[in-house]
Amino acid sequence: MKKILALALAACLALTLAACSGNTVSLPQLTLPESSASESGGEQAAPETVGDQEFTDDLSGLCQYLEENYAVAGEKEEMSYQAIGAKGGYRYLFTYEGGTVQAEFYEFDPENLDDAAQACVDSVKEKGSFTMLDNEVQAKLSPNEKYMMIYHDSKEKEEKNAAQRARVEELFDAFHQD
Questions:
Q1: Is residue 6 within a helix (H) or strand (E), and if so which, with residue range?
Q2: What is the spatial distance between Cα 62 and Cα 45, in angstroms, rounded to a whole number?
């Protein structure tokens, strides 16, 4: 019974990893600091980064922090986090510069990892990915190994999309690292 439940949860997670159509919102197109004013067109200037001190050091706080810093957009959806041994998980689905972005965030208890969590964390530390239902999923751990991020942009090779991903990774890495 446990194997069937784990397989069902893993299937749910894998299905959500594939970008799917649906109601998505657009993340405002921001002029990132390295862009010149002449390139900005109708874009908004990037807002001042909101620090993490006003957000709790948990998954909800991380999500709020990323929302306030325009790293993600739309309603977050709870994920099937148990399959990878996480404490919780959320997904955002939105568009940015013509690309469909799926950003997922998971929280682990680094002091109390079960076998599934330990295998997932070890794999991401070693090779930057983990295997879910025979699919290799690219992921990134926070420096304290408490959070994991999966970020996929259908136009990730485009310059602005790549710059936005780098910005999101920088915000993710900085969350409660003081």
A1: helix 2-17
A2: 23
Residues 116, 69: Cα–Cα separation, whole Å: 32
Give the side-chain half-sphere CA count within 13 A for 86.
Answer: 26
Taking all residues of the chain, what is their mean pLDDT, rounded to a whole number? 83
- Nearest to residue 31, comparing CAs of 167, 151, 175, 153? 167
Q: Residue 105 pLDDT > 90, yes or no?
A: yes
**Tens of pLDDT, residues 24-83:** 577 666 554 554 444 445 555 556 788 888 999 999 999 999 999 999 999 999 999 999
pTM for the predicted model, two decimal places: 0.79
Rounded to 5°, angle at Cα 155 from 45 and 160: 25
Pairing of strands 44-45, 147-153: unpaired
Look up residue 104 and give its two tokens.
Answer: 């997922």
What stretch of H or E contains 99? strand 99-107
- For residues 92 and 103, the answer to whether their CB atoms sit within 8 Å is yes
Residue 176: both structure tokens together: 């409660």
The whole-angstrom separation of Cα 89 and Cα 105 is 6
